[in-house]
Amino acid sequence: GRILAVQVSTIANLGAYQSQFGPFIPSLAPRGMHVGVYMVPAMHNRVRAVYTNTVPVDAYRGAGRPEASYVIERLMEKAAREMKLAPDEIRRRNFVPPGAMPLNAPPSLPFDSGDFARNLDDAMARADTDGFGARRAAAEKNGKLLGLGFSYYVERTAAGMSDYARIAVDGKDSMVHVWTGQQTNGQGHETTWTQLISSRLGVDADKIKVHLGDSDVLPGGAGTGGSKAVYMVSGAISDAGDKLIEKGREIAANELEAAKADIEYRGAEGEPVFAVAGTDKVIGLFDVARIAETQADLGAFAGDGEYSQKGNTFPNGAHICEVEIDKETGVLRILRFTAVDDFGHILNPMLVAGQVHGGIVQGLGQAMGEHAVYDVNGQLVTGSFMDYWMPRADDFPHFDVSYNEVPSLSNALGVKGAGEAGTVGAPAAFINAVIDALKPYGIEEIDMPVTPLKLWNIVQGGR
Question: Is the pTM of this model over 0.85?
Fold first, then answer.
């Protein structure tokens, strides 16, 4: 039950023209990811990119990592069936154990932290896998097929770049302005950056204004992508905050008639004041800003920060999917979907849950119905949402999402990116569940997307 090696051969369709990230998606983006969370002694991966008469492809949520995870998790499920092992047992035998981390054993990934068995245990308990046999027997009496699918994903987030931030305090309107090199497109960055500034400076959230990606203010930015925003921006904001406070200590020392070494800032205690240590002599953050604004030699009361990160983070988790197939119609329903994720230290659980929910749905969309269809002449016939299948809210149950926070060692906050994780783990869990449901028909492989027609043909004896 131990993995000896993984061999992968990929033929990637780039479309008719090369886009910016087209070749990157099947090659560098998932490099090394085909070994998943397992101890693997050897790996060979051959990638061939080809041009076709279809539209060009570019990066989409996950960008190559969902496919890599799909390969190894389908292999694990197939190996378990052939070796007559439970799907969780074969994974446990091959997990990288916590005691081996930080890991340096290529081609296995260089995990700095994680507890994969714990996440799988928790997911199985929450999914009630022990009760699945009884549920399957009851469904069979009603003409339904039930299947249970496992997936243990890992995602490698971006690193090897720099990001920037600027924090400026305006004494006139008593506001703190923060600029970052990230651009939000729905992730909730403004909320997270406000949290970071509020906890650092002790300023109420309504006194903080977030500005995004202004090249007149910042020298550059790492851009939004690769699930890196929180640790990159938090590092830059921390550096900018340190420089702002250092400048403030000089002004406060002069006003409070004390040595700079005796001045402390109490923002972390919820007080936006500079104080002489051990005394009640204080001056407020905005008062310091107003003093700076009246003295030309002091310049703007602001701090500019930069942060670089070399090491990746490795968000990971267990996904378990339970599906029901109607034998008469081929209609499929997802009855349960359970995810237990490790995103390191979580700053805002509500935002993380939103990212996980959205990611799971996008991953399931690929597995359930999304498909660019061309006719014999090469004409795209699913060119609008009138024809292209999209996942909708009523296609899914309530997702059972929970977390085990194992801090990353690669950044000061201990966070791991969460933006693409759901998309990486969901497809394999779903397909494994479908194949499990179709076990009575001898099905061992089924290509995405899994449509009702495809299922109906299988049940009725067609292929």
Answer: yes
